[in-house]
Design brief:
Blueprint: E1 2-6, E2 9-13, E3 19-23, E4 26-31, E5 34-39, H1 43-75, H2 80-92, H3 108-120
Antiparallel strand pairs: 1-2, 3-4, 4-5
Helix pairs in contact: 2-3
Length: 127
């Protein structure tokens, strides 16, 4: 039996782990929509981790910018509203009686991301 704290109360979780991810100095356990994170890094290990994370930021940011440009090239091949409507139908429509967010293969965030990219794009138009 496991407990997790949230919003001032403890929630009892009896479910066995769905996923376990272990890395240097941490363990992450997922049980449905609940996550348990345990860290056992020393202050020196934590400092080294923070340094490496800061060093990797420029590369990650550059990769995101490059992939966004690639995505925009694909997006611009289609009519704006048609593209968003098709993504919406593909990635948000589900049976609410059967939908389990942690097990869903739907990607509603793709619809939101594509819509925002279209609206902020200086070349945006109803194509």
């Amino acid at each position: 039996m496991f407990f997790t704290k949230g919003l001032g109360c403890a929630v009892e979780i009896e479910k066995p782990p769905d996923d376990i991810l272990e890395g240097p100095g941490f363990k992450l356990v997922r049980r449905g929509r609940h996550l348990e994170v345990k860290s056992h890094r020393s202050p020196d290990e934590q400092g080294e981790l923070m340094r490496r994370m800061q060093e990797s930021r420029p590369k990650i940011y550059t990769d995101i910018e490059r992939k966004t440009v690639e995505l925009l090239e694909i997006i611009h091949k289609y009519t704006s509203l048609d593209l968003v409507a098709n993504l919406f139908l593909r990635d948000t429509v589900h049976n609410p009686d059967e939908y389990i967010e942690s097990e869903s293969k739907l990607k509603p965030h793709w619809v939101e991301h594509t819509t925002v990219l279209e609206l902020r794009d200086a070349r945006y138009e109803l194509r």
